[in-house]
Amino acid sequence: MKVSCMQENLTKGLSIVSRAVASRSTLPVLGNILIATDQGRLKLAATNLELAVTCWIGAKIEQDGATTLPARVLSDFINSLPPGQIEMDLNIKTQTMHLKCARYDANIKGIDAQEFPIIPTSSDGKKISVESSTLREMIEQVVFAAATDESRPVLTGVVVKADQDKVTFASADGFRLSVRTATLSAPVAEPVGVIVPAKALQEVARVSGDQDDPVEIAVTETKSQVMFKLTNTEIVSQLIEGQFPDFTRIIPDSHATRTVLTTSELQNAVKASSVFAREAMNTVRLQVAPANEMGGGKVTITATSAESGDNVSDVDATVDGDAVEIAFNARYLADVLNVVRASQVALETTGSSSPGVVKIVGRDDFVHVIMPMHIGK
Amino acid sequence: MHALARSLAKDRLAHAYLFTGPHAIGKTTLARALAQTLECPDTARPCGECIACKKIARDRHPDVQIIEGVPVGFKFDEKSPPPPPRANDWERRIIKIDQIRLLQHDISRAPFESPWRVIIVRRFEEANEEAANAFLKTLEEPPAHTRIILTARDASLLLPTIPSRCQVLALRPLAPAQIQTALRERWGVAAETARVLAHLAGGRLGWAIRASENPRLLEARHAHLAALHATLTEGHNEKILRAETLAKKDEDLPEMIEWWLSWWRDVLLTQHGDAARVSNIDFEDTLRAHAARFTLEQIQDALQAIRQTARQLAQNINPRLALEVLLLKLPA
User: Fold this and answer.
1) Pairing between β-strand A233-238 and β-strand A225-230 as defined by DSSP bridges
2) What pLDDT score was predicted for residue B277?
3) Is ipTM strictly over 0.95?
4) For B1, which of A297, B7, B104, B294 is 20 to 30 Å away at the CA?
């Protein structure tokens, strides 16, 4: 194997794939990055057997070949080089890569590429295509609600469903549920539904940050992996096995009160209350009062701590329905308000012990359900 | 074995197996072979030639995980490096609940490159109660595409809820003649060495192979037996001194105890005229001499004293004192 490429490209490629390098593993090769020539380009790949990231960079190839090099050593060395051309030459017998850049020389010992797990590449299977900005927004609005606790593995994932021309992302951790839908430019031939680890989606959002082309999503034939195809980068994630609870049943189909608030005002009020709420199991109370002869509708947000004190903030609101008092976990409210990306949100409630629903005013593609906390009188 | 072959032929494997038998009898080897059979794409599974088979043979397959206990006091978490290899068969290790949790996380994902995820947990008797209990649910209902193989010295050493959730397969010791032939034909061991190893192995082919590859095992045995032979003619003071020296290398004591037990067993057999079942066949003359020198009662006492010492050592008793008592109890 004999190739040359630019230091800048290699650094960027390595930074993209290194996130998938295994930190702990009984397989030494997983601490390495695969470097292989691939149809006139240089392919870099890393995997921890849950997530695999492959990235192609431009290179001049004199002789085809492949090897794997230790990720830390390689990245740290390449990062310390000046910008410019790097020449790489592999000694197959010793699996040692000779690198040369300006007046820097190095020999890095690798492991045979045969040892590297086989990462599936794009098949001709069914694909769906999503605008990369939409995909990033969908991921952002859903992943935070996935469970971090491993006791129920399916809840650490995000359901990705496609049916006709609609794609749905949903996640839940037992206390909240986040669902976001989007319309596909081309309908899918048959419905698909898989559970993708939340971490993998975060990685997709991160890597697709500077790309404009749509992202292609495909499930491998064995139904064990999902693939996100970006320009020059592919992210493959193992799917989580199991049955995700039917989340549509959790979304209340009616409400007694609909309260429309300005997102930033509610955000500030929740932030202020959370100072006191954190000593009281994060409980903040929302008292929703419809407009009456005394004045317009408003929501009073309170938090009380036995030790530090209490606070009360009022936020103007358009209230449609009965007055209601309901308590939520302040963090859950803050989390959802952080990702709505809209100036106005609607809070739909049916009583103090029924779940609250947060929606974006004027849109029906986002639904967030939060279980209320018990109000002790 | 036949039962296993039959269910393989019918493609009707149980979701979890428990292989039991003494150390180095071939439990993990069988587990690897079963994993190869599951993962090998060849029709004559396992072919032993394809990448999958080769990776499994070297424990490098991404979907075949071998889990072992960690040394006592080893801190295990997600980031910890793999535990060091076992120093010897007697090293005390523990399978911790965090290892089981990490495993449960891994198997919640679909297999990476092959049809099955195979989990091999070695020496499950080393799992502490927490870990064993945490494993029950997984063992009962592993995710699809997952096969679990546990190995243990004996099913009775496990929580009864473990074997009841597995298909238990007890591996039996091989006859010395079988081991001898295998050593000579498949591992190219010289005839005389093969004969001695086959008798010493106690039916455990794995042990015989290891001993043929690692001369240290036989050297250690020689040293342990030499110490035993020497101490039988020693006086009080020398015995006390010897106990002190032996106690300094207490990690070798379990091995020494086993060889000493096998020696007295052989003396007993020789005295009884059952030379065919003797294992220390390379010391025939000394065995005959000892059989003539000691009475049946003395031999039985020696065996009992050694066994008692083994129990005491396992219970954290001062090794030097235990050994002093043992050496003084051995017949003169």
Assistant:
1) antiparallel
2) 86
3) no
4) B104
Q: Are A182 and A271 in contact (CB under 8 A)?
A: no
**Mean pLDDT rounded to a whole number for chain A:** 92
- Checking if the pLDDT of B161 tops 80, the result is yes
**A153 with B112: Cβ contact below 8 A:** no
- Among A29, A115, A241, the residue with its CB nearest the CB of B143 is A241
Between chain A and chain B, how many beta carbons pairs sit less than 8 Å apart?
Answer: 63
Share of chain A above pLDDT 90, in %: 80
Average pLDDT over residues B134-161: 92
Please say whether the beta carbons of B151 and B119 come within 8 A. Answer: no
CATH architecture of B2-170: 3-Layer(aba) Sandwich (3.40)
A window 76-135, beta carbon within 8 A of B: 114-115, 117-118, 120
Q: What CATH topology corresponds to A127-248?
A: DNA Polymerase III; Chain A, domain 2 (3.10.150)
Q: Which of the residue ranges A138-152, A343-357, B7-21 would you say has the lowest mean pLDDT?
A: B7-21
pLDDT at B231 over 80: yes
Cβ atoms A132, A212 nearer than 8 A = yes
Percent of chain A at pLDDT > 70 equals: 98
pLDDT, mean over chain B? 89
Q: Which residues pair with A180 in a beta bridge?
A: A169, A366
Q: What is the pLDDT of residues A242-254, one digit of tens each?
A: 899 999 999 999 9
Q: What is the pLDDT of residue A41?
A: 95
* Cβ atoms of residues B86 and A199 within 8 Å: no
Whether pLDDT at B16 is above 80: yes
In whole angstroms, what is the distance from residue B153 CA to residue A248 CA?
Answer: 50
pLDDT at A122 over 70: no
* Cα–Cα distance, B112 to B105 (Å, whole number): 14
Q: For residue B117, which phi and psi values (nearest 5 degrees)?
A: -100, 120
Cα B171 from chain centre: 12
**Spatial CA neighbour of A244 closest among A173, A183, A182, A138:** A173
CA–CA distance, A221 with B110 (Å, rounded to integer): 13
- What ranges do the domains of chain B cover? 2-170, 214-329
Residues in chain B: 332
Q: What percent of chain B has pLDDT over 70?
A: 100
Which pTM does this prediction carry? 0.83
Q: To probe the interface with B, which of A241, A243, A244 has the most B CB atoms within 10 Å?
A: A241
Residue numbers in A near B81 (CB within 8 A):
24
Q: What is the mean pLDDT of residues B101-108?
A: 89
**Which residues in chain B have their CB less than 8 angstroms from residue A225's CB?**
110
The CATH number of domain B214-329 is 1.20.272: yes
> What is the end-to-end Cα distance of chain B in Å, rounded?
47
What is the CATH code for A251-370? 3.10.150.10
pLDDT (average), residues A283-303: 91
Quick check: bond before B46 cis, omega within 30?
yes
Tell me where in chain A the CATH 3.10.150.10 domain(s) lie.
2-115, 127-248, 251-370
Cα B1 to Cα A311: distance, rounded to the nearest angstrom? 72
Architecture of domain A2-115: Roll (3.10)
Tokens 């980068």 belong to which residue?
A233
**What is the model's pLDDT at position A92?**
92
Task: Note whether B112 contacts A238, CB cutoff 8 Å.
Answer: yes
Give strand pairing partners of B243. none
Single-letter residue type at B81: P
